[in-house]
Amino acid sequence: MNRGVTAPLIDLLRADLGAANFSVTALTGLWGIEADAALRRNQRVPALRALAKLRATLSVPEPNVVLAQIFVLGLPVERAELAAALPSLGVDGAEQLGLVAARPDEAATQPGPLADRAAPADPAQVAPLVDLRPYSFVDAHGAGSWWITSDLGELALGHPLGEDHVLGVGGASLTLSALMIPTAVDSALDLGTGCGIQALHAARHATRVVATDISERALELAALNARLNGVENIEFRLGSLFDPVAGERFDHIISNPPFVITPRVEGVPSYEYRDGGMVGDALVEAVVRGAADHLTPGGVAQLLGNWEYHDDDAFHRLTGWLESPAETALDAWIIEREVQPPTGYAETWIRDGGTRPDTPDFDRLYGAWLDDFEARGVRQVGFGYMLLRRPTDGRRRPAAPARPRLLRLERLPEALGHNPAGIGHHLAECLAAHDWQAGLDDDALSRSTLTVASDVTEERHFWPGQEDPTLMTLHQGGGFGRSVPLDTAQAALIGACDGELPVGAIIDAIAQLLDADAAALRAELLPRVRGLLDDAFLQPPAA
């Protein structure tokens, strides 16, 4: 794709999509909430029925009906209809951009990933070569919407995906974008950008973004998406892992790497968007180990990943990935969200590639996955979030000990809290609170005033007729939706944290009420206070 030639055409496409109000809300209005939910399950029949009924009531289909049919449902439309839906770009412009094909021989002669896209038999029709759909979101910077182009999925293709498939916005993409810390930075790196969705999100808080991928096709589509949405601060580079940015450092690294563990044997497809070409979880290890050399002091890397369980706990292996010279040892916060046995893992990713169960190919691939796991002693596979941070020169506070390294590995399989703008802001709050409290000794912490976060509630259970509760629990409404059991002293301390009295004074008052030793109570409660700060139940004083 010649960007100099296609840029004006992309601008015309943007104008047409905007004029048509081609949006998530508009599409839901076309076919309804239930059909929308069915589409997310890869079922388009309800949406097709709704469009057919709508067409029957219209003498001329409105632009969104045509655009939805060809670019979202992946079905041919009349050439004249598409011309009316894209009046500025026109069908010829759409063909030049590689969005549609008009005759059977045109798709067959397209190079690379376009070669297997089917064109309509009727020359009066045009068929899609890409998936193009609206995407809406809410993040720390407010509500936004984009149009995202990717390769056609298995529903439109009618067969399993090609190995060079460029994925659109999926579940992993949404997870990572929601995790993205929104703090303003000068530079960001999207490692393995795919269709460019993470680079677009990063461009909202970074002055400049570098997006890399091993796939030329992915970079073409990502560049198209950036231009289509008027985002101009992204640079695209071709190459594997950190090769395209050798010697460079970034304030924020984001990566949804091709982390899927795939047997490296003949006959098992290796999809560029999900399979990194290495054995087991070696690709995720490579990203983790390489991050230290590409982060600025204080810079943060956030990625998704899989990791294998062998004879020992996988967290031991993850800790080993983080080993490096003391001066560059990364802070790490790793959260395991899910664990799958080899059988469940194999089934998930074979279906993801479009191979249907109860077919010979499915059984063959299933056997290859189980053989690979058995040969390498893999008992199960974990999935989760990885947050890495390069230390700064500011680990030490005046008159305080050096801040210890943050190394936090935990399992949180429960549902997250309510985070309409994503969980990235919560992660930033947790890191800031940890750094603040870790830089204070117990005396300094005791002199500090704290407040309870606004999303925190307390739940109490009583036996009938009893004045004292039998169970007290602190709940977090946002963030990770954590719950913490309370005893009488801790409940009283938290209840009094209103930003007025120092923590030490509150503990001394509680000790007097409970007829307890004040020093012993401080020794018991202050570590809990630090934990509540780390999890954003409590907030430090405003800077």
Automatic annotation (TrEMBL):
<dbReference type="InterPro" id="IPR007848">
    <property type="entry name" value="Small_mtfrase_dom"/>
</dbReference>
<comment type="similarity">
    <text>Belongs to the eukaryotic/archaeal PrmC-related family.</text>
</comment>
<dbReference type="GO" id="GO:0008757">
    <property type="term" value="F:S-adenosylmethionine-dependent methyltransferase activity"/>
</dbReference>
<protein>
    <submittedName>
        <fullName>SAM-dependent methyltransferase</fullName>
    </submittedName>
</protein>
<dbReference type="GO" id="GO:0008276">
    <property type="term" value="F:protein methyltransferase activity"/>
</dbReference>
<dbReference type="InterPro" id="IPR002052">
    <property type="entry name" value="DNA_methylase_N6_adenine_CS"/>
</dbReference>
<dbReference type="Pfam" id="PF25004">
    <property type="entry name" value="DUF7782"/>
</dbReference>
<keyword id="KW-0489">Methyltransferase</keyword>
<dbReference type="InterPro" id="IPR029063">
    <property type="entry name" value="SAM-dependent_MTases_sf"/>
</dbReference>
<dbReference type="InterPro" id="IPR056684">
    <property type="entry name" value="DUF7782"/>
</dbReference>
<dbReference type="GO" id="GO:0003676">
    <property type="term" value="F:nucleic acid binding"/>
</dbReference>
<feature type="domain" description="DUF7059">
    <location>
        <begin position="19"/>
        <end position="108"/>
    </location>
</feature>
<dbReference type="Pfam" id="PF23186">
    <property type="entry name" value="DUF7059"/>
</dbReference>
<dbReference type="GO" id="GO:0008170">
    <property type="term" value="F:N-methyltransferase activity"/>
</dbReference>
<dbReference type="GO" id="GO:0035657">
    <property type="term" value="C:eRF1 methyltransferase complex"/>
</dbReference>
<feature type="domain" description="DUF7782">
    <location>
        <begin position="432"/>
        <end position="535"/>
    </location>
</feature>
<dbReference type="GO" id="GO:0032259">
    <property type="term" value="P:methylation"/>
</dbReference>
<keyword id="KW-0808">Transferase</keyword>
<feature type="domain" description="Methyltransferase small">
    <location>
        <begin position="176"/>
        <end position="311"/>
    </location>
</feature>
<dbReference type="InterPro" id="IPR052190">
    <property type="entry name" value="Euk-Arch_PrmC-MTase"/>
</dbReference>
<dbReference type="Pfam" id="PF05175">
    <property type="entry name" value="MTS"/>
</dbReference>
<keyword id="KW-0949">S-adenosyl-L-methionine</keyword>
<dbReference type="InterPro" id="IPR055487">
    <property type="entry name" value="DUF7059"/>
</dbReference>
